[in-house]
């Protein structure tokens, strides 16, 4: 069938709507009619080359470049058709996508760490992970999909491991945001950072992921949540979803917020969720982190970023921990339904985070607005 999808065709190219030839699902695959797709910063990381790989690695995936690529990895929709051997999903089911596949059988999945599922090694680029053949074609050629998903598309065909079934009454728009950004931020604080009641948490970067982190801190019992963003309007929005204090840089927080708030002890946890992680931010975060505190690195850095500023004397003598995280170190099949229930109970605010809806043809405009600082989260609404 022919579908419309937003594609970036070259490094630093624009998001453009293209007609894609989409094949029928093979064994273990599912076709979903998309309802909503959130516009996470990670898609921009592919467009700008931060998420990439060495040519030899790409060759291993059977491609010579990350492009062309169908964007989008945060979304929700309704199952329309299933291929052979799909038993857990049926047409009509509501689903959220997961950029981390969860096969349920590999060692990480079997040991309760779906966020490390071995199938994630296949999600960068290349053919379907089911059987290494292609379902998506643009002008007669095979096309990559962001995280094996490519949710900026009227319909997607994906492996069933990339889908999480949700309840028929659950909200598809909220499910879309929870499927990546909100879950990742929430888990960064609750699952990876293991927030304790009464702690002080600083969240650096208050976009979609940071908004999940702020609410994870609030729900996890933090006594104070410091929202830090270079953009004052993001700080103001953060105060509406649970932040108790705001600052426009880590230095601002170090001088004007943390001394009184923590009696000079600094933040128990500093979560890094800026748009792009750079090496200088690690030491800045450590310098506002308390003795015995945790620094959680959630944001994505350029793939060849090997150097960082970090005072190793302070790290050891203050007994601090630097923790990386993917998907907030949570299991998608557990975390996404759990956060949807918190949304239903009015405990997790998604609606305040969604600043604007766009059509599929407006994906570039949505990312221009993100760059301009006017979006916390833009969302594509499909017909
Ligand atoms: N680890 C994971 O599994 C995972 C999952 C999803 C997204 N991410 C990454 O998380 C990051 C955040 O994603 P997002 O969609 O929320 O991005 P976003 O662009 O919506 O938000 C980033 C925010 O950071 C602010 N910012 C930028 N530099 C800053 C700085 N030095 N100090 C303070 N604030 C700063 C921006 O003003 C913006 O409000 C991205 O790098 C994204 O790729 C990681
Ligand atoms: Zn994302
Ligand atoms: Zn697995």
Strand content: 25-35%
Architecture (CATH level 2) name of the largest domain: Alpha-Beta Complex
Helical amount: 25-40%
Bound molecules: nicotinamide-adenine-dinucleotide, zinc ion
Biggest sheet, open or closed, and with what strands and sense?
7 strands, mixed
Structure characterization notes:
- This protein has 383 residues and is of the alpha/beta class.
- It has two domains: 2-166 and 353-381, Quinone Oxidoreductase, Chain A, domain 1 (Alpha-Beta Complex); 185-325, NAD(P)-binding Rossmann-like Domain (Rossmann fold).
- It is built from twelve helices and 19 strands.
- The strands form three sheets. Strands 3, 5, 6, 10, 11, 18 and 19 form a seven-stranded mixed sheet that branches. A six-stranded mixed sheet has the order 8-7-2-1-4-9, with no helix packed on it. The protein has a six-stranded parallel sheet with strand order 14-13-12-15-16-17, with helices on both faces.
- The mean pLDDT is 97.
- Bound molecules: nicotinamide-adenine-dinucleotide and zinc ion (2 copies).
- One zinc ion (ZN) is lined by residues 102-103, 105-106, 108-109, 117-119.
